[in-house]
Hints:
Chain A is an alpha/beta fold.
Amino acid sequence: MIDQARIRSDFPILDWEIDGRPMAFLDSACSSQKPAQVIDAMMDALRDSYANVHRGAYTLSQEATEAYEGARRKVARFLNAAAPEEVVFTRSTTAAINLFAYGWGLGNLKPGDRVLISVMEHHSNIVPWHIIARHTGAELSFLDITGDYRIDLEKPEDYFDERVKIVSLSGMSNVLGTMPPIGEIARLAREVGAVMLVDGAQMVPHSPVDVQEMGTDFLAFSGHKMLGPTGIGVLWGRRELLEKMEPMEGGDEMIREVRLFESTWAPVPQKFEAGTPPFVEAIGLGVAVDYLSEIGMDQILEHDRKLTSYALRRLEEVPGLSIQGPANTIDRGGVVSFDIPGIHAHDIATILDQHGVAVRAGHHCAQPLMRRLGLAAATRASFHVYTSEADIDALVDALGVARRLLASTEAVTVR
Amino acid sequence: MASLEELYREVILDHYRSPRNRRVLERSNAGADGSNPLCGDEVRVDLLIEAGVITDIGVTGHGCSISQASGSMMGDAVKAKALDEVCRLTDRFKGMMSIEGAADPGLDPERPGAVLGDLEALQGVRKFPVRIKCADLPWTTLEEALGIYESG
Ligand SMILES: Cc1ncc(COP(=O)(O)O)c(C=O)c1O
């Protein structure tokens, strides 16, 4: 059991009130709130020990370099990576997936090759592949979802064959909450000789991760969804593959030697970190990782599971409401998307906001999935370790107001 | 803080629940589709323009109450109006929905004979900036339909 009162007191923003009511922040899947520990560490880095990394010979710069590399070691330990060198700092999940798509895809894909993704991916794991497909002549193929919102692996041979060179799949859907069986899919990918990336933007902030067990070759995630700051993300990759991968950006920091007509690269991970890195943000992420580890990722997963189960039960009380996502909490994370026929998600979000309940409404950066589900928009409530049952109660109460205001009992008439 | 009553005025809810002009025209000579990719609102405007006058209009689509009510009200407001008057109305409406619109004294909703009729009820939307695009959508779609009509 986590000590929720103590945890909530670490998050300054949760003291906010809206019209005398505590804010119910239910949009953590979009970006999580930050504990004071993370905010303070970044302030300290800016105020008391700021200098660029990997450059100055003076003490301050050496300290900053040590803090930056220390953050890399923390992240490596958090993922159980074989070595800190396997952790490449990027700007975000999006930047990490693009780095993999360009760095690996551009040089290794040829016409007729396939990149296998799924219909439930975030735009960040679709659009880079559209671009790479255009450059290389490779094609995209898609794993589908089942009626109960799971990845359809009934006939894997329909999807996995020798043409598939890259498999890139979300470890947890930001709309459905579905957590696909990554181990099984990684085995299928390996059997056909494909290289695999897991989009861990939602998975890494909410469940224990051991990259040596998972079976994937690459993993991408963002700091800002896991109690850390914006502007920092990670591409983890197996060392031997990172060493074979091409850099996407050139500049300083990523070089060994530069001559007029050619240059050579620094070893990994520096090869992929051109220019001054976001090291203040990396330090913040390091502290976020410490914070999460102290609570325990298994505890956080369990907390999310309990809340999801509570939310599914409470939302059932709302007449007409339907859930987009698995109906149970098996292999399912803490995001609950729903719609109420006759009330548009945008109206719901506005009315909820007026009651201090912050949710996301829209297509959730997953237009192909929304089209697959036949929905124009959905409302989503999502959780993290500071989310409480009271937040979900506030959501259900405010949904009652939305229904009273907007749901007409008569069918819409046409004049 | 802006209140929900300002956004969801009764007249808006009435247009949302019972949309006017919600039909596909049998005979039309102008039209356009509009959408807000961010929120998924969709509007289709069909027009019958005869001798420089909008003699019939159909507004269909799906989306939030604000976009759909705005489309319903727009149909009422522009039907049987000459194109130059429609242009003036469009400008007036867009002015009302912009932040500067607050300074337009002609838009006092309490004033008798308000220029924009029911549409003035949409003024409350200005207090909810993320929703302004919803109210504007039918009008930008109408402008597009007229643009296509005039250039073709
Ligand atoms: C599954 C998934 N992938 C990728 C992203 C993109 O993350 P970022 O915007 O931090 O790059 C998100 C964020 O919403 C996500 O939920």
